[in-house]
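Field reference: sequence -> structure
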Amino acid sequence: MNPIPSRPLLSIAVSLALGTFLAAGTLRGGDWPHWLGPKGDNTAAADGFDADLAQWKDGWKASLGRGYSSVAVADGRAYCIGHDEKAGETVFCFDAATGESRWKHAYPAELMPRMHSGGPNATPTVVGNKVITVSKDGQVFCLATADGGKLWQAKLSDALGIEVPRWGFGASAVVDGQQVLFAAGKVVALDLADGHKLWTSKEAYHPGYATVSVFVQGGKKFVAALDGKGFSVLDAKDGAEIARRPFKSGFDLNATSPTVLPDGKRILVAGNSAAELLAFDGSALTAVWSIKELKNAMNNSVIVGDTIYGIDGRQGSSARLVAVNLADGKVLWAKDGFGYGNTIGVGSDVLALTESGELVTFRASRDGYKELGRRQVLAKTCWTTPVLAAGRIYARNDRGDLVTLRR
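Structure field:
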C-alpha cells in the first residue's frame, strides 16, 4: 500500500508545469508566452509596474474549469486550460485586452482528482504561430494560434515509453529551436514541425512533474532535468547524460523547475524536502550549499539580485515566505501568511498570489519584509503562479476562476 502524502507533499503533484525556456519565434515586449515567463527566470519586465495594487482596475473574468494551468500571453492573446469535471479538458484562447473568446479546443481527458481537485497542470507554450499544450493524462496538442486548428498531436506515455505517472503529467513543453522537450523521469524531444520523435534520453528514472530548463555554458547547450529521485544534466542535441546527482523528496514528488543562473555554472534545485545550489563545470555537479529552509513544494522561487525569494512549504505546518542569501543559503528573513502561494519577480519588486487568493506586492529587499500592496482577488485554493503581461495581471484558482487586473 502506498503511503498517503500529507497536504504539503501531495500539493507538489499539482505544481504547475515548470521550465526555463529558450524559444524560437519573435515575441512582443511584455508577453509571457510560456511557464516562467519570457526569459525563463520567473520574472516580468517592470514597464512602469505600480506595486500599489489598489490603483489597478478590475479587468475581464472567465471560467476555465478545474485545474492549475497558468496563463500564457503572446501577441495579444491569452491561453489557458481547464477540465469540465465530466468529459474532458478545453484549451481556451482569449483576446488579452477584452477577454473575448477567440477559439476553444476541447478533447476527452481524465480529471485525475487524486488527493486534490484534479485537472491540467501544464501551462500552454506559445512559439510563433503555434501553441503547444499538455493534458493531465499526457495528450500533447500543437494548435494554430490563429484558430485553434490541430497541427499535430502526440501521446507522452508512448513517446517516453512509460505508464502515466500517479499524478499525471505536470511538465510544460519547452521549445529549443526545432525541438520540443517533455519530461517525466525520461526526457523526449519531438519535432516542432510535425511532432515526430527526435530522441529520448536513455536513462529511465522515477517520473517527476518538473519541466526541464535549457541553458548554455561554454558555447554548448544543455538540458537540466529534475525527476522523482534526482537531477540530471543532459546534452541538448541527443539527450545523453552528462552529470547526475541524487535529490530526494517526500514521496518522490519533485516538481519545480531547475533555475539556471545566467553564467550556466550554478543551478538552484528545490523540492519539498530541501534546496541545493549546485556548481556545474560542463561535466560534473558539486554542491555549493544545501538547506531545508527553502522547500519549494508548490512553485519556483525567484532570484532578484543576490537573493532568493520563495515559499518554504514546511512539512506539518503552514508555509512561509522566505528570503535566502544566494551565496551561502542562509535565511535572511521569513514571513508567515502566504500558504502555498506563488511568487514572480517584477523589477525590484515581487508579485505574489497567496493560497487564499490575495495578490501581494513586496520589495525585493534583503533587510526584511516590506509590503507594498495587498488585494483579495480570488477565493481559495490558489496554487497557480500569477502572470504579469502587457499591463495586465492574471490569476486563477483551482476551480478555474480566472481574473485579470489592468493598469
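Note: The domain at 7-406 is CATH 2.130.10.10 (Methylamine Dehydrogenase; Chain H).
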